[in-house]
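Figure 3 (text version): structure tokens given as input.
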């Protein structure tokens, strides 16, 4: 990539907010074993790492804390 090919994005770049329900639905698509995380991410136009992060967050939310 040369400096001529570099594209600079200024201002707000399509940053979406997902509700907990949205996150749970997207993560659940990856847990059924029929499709890969990469396929689900591509279909929802998000990065795979975001799905893995949501998985960790949702597990932590469902895990009971010390009593």
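Below: residues designed for each position.
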């Amino acid at each position: 990539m040369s400096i001529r090919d570099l594209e600079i994005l200024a201002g707000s770049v399509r940053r979406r907010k997902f509700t907990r329900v949205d996150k749970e639905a997207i993560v659940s698509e990856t847990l059924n074993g029929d499709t890969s995380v990469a396929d689900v991410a591509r279909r929802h136009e998000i990065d795979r790492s975001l799905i893995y992060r949501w998985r960790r967050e949702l597990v932590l939310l469902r895990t009971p804390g010390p009593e």
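The chain is about 50% helix and 0% strand.
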